[in-house]
Amino acid sequence: MSGPNGDEVAAQAWIELRTEDPEAVSALAVARGRLAAGRTLERLRRLRLIEIRGGVPAADEVARLLHESTQFYNPHKERCAVRAGVEDPPPVRDGDAVLLVWERGGTRRPSAERWWRHETGREALVDEGVAWVMTFGSGTDAVAAARELGALRDARHGLLCNPFAQEMRWGAGNVPMPWIDEAESQE
Question: For residues 147-167, b (16+ Cβ closer than 10 Å) or e, as one string?
Answer without folding.
Answer: eebbebbeeeeebbbeeeebb
